[in-house]
Amino acid sequence: MSKLNKDILFLIFEELQNDSKSLFSCLMINKLWCETVIPILWRNPWCYDINYNDKNYLFLIIASYLTEDIKEYLTRQGIQLPSFSYKSLLFDYLSFCRNINIKTINTIISIGSFLAYNQFLLQQEFYSLFMKKFIVLKYLDMKSIKHQIFYFPESKTCLKSLCELKCDTSIDSSYFYGLARLCQYIQRLIIVNVNTNVNYGIVKLIEVQMNLKYFEWEDVFEDNFEFNYSRVDPYKEVLLALEKKADILNHLKFYFLYVDHTLQRVLPKLHKLKTLIINDFGRSSDDQLKMLIYNDLETLIIDCILLNAASIIIKNSGGRLKKILLEPYDFSLHDESFTKDSLFFIRKIYENCPSIEYLSLAFSPSKEHFTEFEKLLKICQNLKSILLTIFNIEEIETNEKVIENGEELLKVLIRSTPINLREIRFSDDFIFSLEALEEFFGKWRGRPLTILTTDSIYEGEHYTKLIDKYKNDGVIKDFRCEPFIDVIYGL
User: For the residues of 68-127, what is the DSSP string, one character each?
Assistant: First the structure.
């Protein structure tokens, strides 16, 4: 019975693994709870939202594992070390650890000394200790690393099981060459690109992977950075290496500084994608777009793409899409055929995406568009959250017309909203009168709704009073006015 209870507790605590406050509280209940929580907390003790500068106990625990001769040597260098011995520890904490976060560990190490050389010595001894004590290493965030940990004798066993690696392109290629020799079963590779030079070590690391399922790349440059187009293309070699992983790669997230022609060539080859997230799709012909056939695609997020291009991708998907998020304001600014294409886009959604759960939608305020939108709501019954934007690019509408569009939209939502819908986001160009909003709330029963908007009009006294009334009735879970970027990209 006690074994069963411990198993149940473990499953409960597993659900709380990202909630450090609750887990720390559980430590104080009794011995059984403490013994069950400790392995979960120490699986990744660097991930919690705490100030590690003030957490001397982490430095103290790790340093207590050092042998006496190493402690004596470090003390002679002026490094302050704890005086108690390993025997005083209640648990073998490091044996539970599966994660290394270089930045956090460096912060903890600074507790021992503020001198750069002494910190270097501590890093060397701590990483050597980790390679010995960690049974396996699953996750490594090595941004800002200075030690080639793969040279430690025990690293071959420890690093062989690495599943997730986070790094940046400032790290010397030789480091990645060393990892490529040991780590060939990485499933998630997340890269921050900080310069325009090709890092051939990263290319090699990608090439040797046998189970790479998730790849993420993000350009992060200084604000005054100017891209030098005369340099070697920093994306080409990486994309060509990814092309060779087409049969295993399921998730691609690529935020780059400029549109790369190699990407247009590689994307059609990545036929097993379940997630495609890119910031700029660029311009492609219909023939090129028709080559993008993703039968397993579930998530499509693109900041810059024409509606017609998105419609073609959706049409050629396998009917499994659950999330489609596009940048709505790009449509009206760059697509002269927005009115026609937005109508086509709505139809492609309800024809090809019966399982859609999260959707951003922009369309013209015509009767035909409202009719098609209502059809989408009736068909797509799994819809949980939707971002709505209305554009009339043919004429500037009066305030009265904008209010009329809002009333029509609310009527459609009242009549046909899917039962699972729990969140509606409204961007600009929506104004709801008090009367229309109260009618909407009055008919929205049994499904607590969250509404987010970019318009501060709803923070006025009369609107606030109305919203609070229906919050108290349980009709509205939340109604917030937030910055544009949070409403658009928070879905």
Answer: HHHHHHHHHTT-----S-GGG-SS-GGGG--EEEHHHHHHHHTTT-SSHHHHHHHHHHHH
The gap from C-alpha 451 to its chain's centroid, in whole angstroms, comes to 22
**Are the CB atoms for 182 and 153 separated by under 8 Å?**
no
Q: Distance (Å, rounded) from C-alpha 272 to C-alpha 212?
A: 12
Closest residue by Cα to residue 203 from 146, 241, 245: 241
Structure tokens at 232: 């070697």
> What residue numbers bound the domain in which 2 lies?
1-41
Residue 27 lies in a domain: yes
pLDDT tens per residue across span 62-121 = 888 888 889 888 888 888 787 765 557 778 888 888 888 888 888 888 887 788 888 888
CATH of the domain at 436: 3.80.10
State the total domains in the chain. 2
pLDDT in tens, 288-306: 788 889 999 999 999 888 8
The Cα–Cα gap between 135 and 437 comes to 59
Distance CA 440, CA 448 (A): 13
Distance, CA of 174 to chain centre: 29
Give the chain's end-to-end CA distance (angstroms, integer).
44
Residue 236 included in any domain: no
> What is the enclosing helix (H) or strand (E) of 41?
helix 31-41
Segment (H or E) for 484: helix 484-489
Strands 423-426 and 323-326: unpaired
In the predicted structure, residue 488 carries a pLDDT above the cut 90: no
Residues 6+ positions from 155 with CB-CB distance below 8 Å: 131, 149, 182
Give residues with Cβ within 8 angstroms of 261, minimum separation 6. none
Q: Pseudo-torsion of CA 254, 257, 263, 268, nearest 10°?
A: 50
d(CA 339, CA 346): 11
Quote the distance between the C-alpha of residue 456 and its chain's center: 28
- The answer to whether residue 243 sits within a structural domain is no
The first and second tokens of residue 467, run together, are 């919203």
pLDDT tens-digit readout, 244-262: 999 999 999 999 887 667 8
How high does pLDDT run on average in the chain? 85
The answer to whether residue 276 sits within a structural domain is no
In one-letter notation, the amino acid at residue 181 is R
**Ramachandran angles phi, psi of 340, nearest 5°:** -70, -45
Q: Go through 309-333 and write b for each residue having 16 or more CB atoms within 10 A of its CB, e for each that does not.
A: bbbbbbebbeebbbbbbbbbebbbe
DSSP run (H or E) holding 471: helix 461-472
33 in Cβ contact with 9 (< 8 Å) = yes
